[in-house]
Amino acid sequence: PDEVSLESGAVLGIPGLTAAHCVFGGGAVTGKTVLISGGAGTVGYLAVQLAKWGGAKVIATGSPRDFDRMTAAGADHVVDYRSETLAADILAANGGACLDMAVEVEFGVNVGLLAEVMAENARVAIYGSAKNMAPEIPFGPLLFKALTLDIVLIYILPEAPRAEAISQLHAALTEGALDLPIAHVFPPQEAARAHEAVEAGGRAGAVLVGF
């Protein structure tokens, strides 16, 4: 949109489209409860904001150091992803009821958890599994809940759903529903430092190279 800065546009790119398709790829989320793992990550942070903008109740997992940030983004409840009672914590945050949808960054680690906390016929949008790329899947529990596992790779998303994701992003941006923090903008001659900043992690915002 015309009123959105080039810097904000640069923050979106693949993360923005991924978040939008994960949240809205199965239809409207109004009135649903959405679980977002890694709610302080690049995609997760946008997904929290988009799901809340879309009318969902949002439960986000992450590190305690990021609880305030996820809450500010719109999460109704935040849960420590390292909790030994993570499934129970998530269900408690939803009044004991199972959840309607999930946006998942670490499928291999969390597949057992998802089988436990998701409702029947729920959708799980999966965009990552870096910690375990060859997970063992508890097919029985997934089967008897008839969960939809929707693997998202935005690079090869067909034209129609891509256009819909762009439309959702534009609408959210136009309504001022997205906060797009920028941690640092490096000049082109310091592009190597930009890569180092990304590799170091621990930042609360995007790293850009500006011309």
CATH topology of the largest domain: Quinone Oxidoreductase, Chain A, domain 1
Task: Give the count of helical stretches.
Answer: 8
Helix content: 40-55%
Distance between the termini: 21 Å
The largest sheet, given as strand count, sense and whether it forms a barrel, is: 6 strands, parallel
According to DSSP, the number of beta strands is: 8
Strand-residue fraction? 15-25%
In the CATH scheme, the class of the largest domain would be Alpha Beta
In total, how many domains does the architecture comprise? 2
Could you please describe the fold and organization of this structure?
By secondary structure, the protein is of the alpha/beta class. The chain has two domains: 6-174, Quinone Oxidoreductase, Chain A, domain 1 (Alpha-Beta Complex); 181-211, no CATH class. It is 43% helix and 20% strand. It has helices spanning 6-24, 42-53, 67-73, 86-93, 107-117, 139-145, 159-174, 191-200; strands at residues 33-36, 57-62, 77-80, 99-104, 118-126, 148-151, 182-186, 206-209. Helix 1 packs across helix 2 (42-53), helix 1 crosses helix 7 and helix 4 crosses helix 5. 39% of the residues are buried. The mean pLDDT is 96.
Which features does this protein show?
alpha/beta, Quinone Oxidoreductase, Chain A, domain 1, 6-stranded parallel beta sheet, two-stranded parallel sheet, 8 helices, 20% strand, globular
In short:
This protein has eight helices and eight strands; from the N terminus they run αβαβαβαβαβαβαβαβ. It is of the alpha/beta class and 211 residues long.
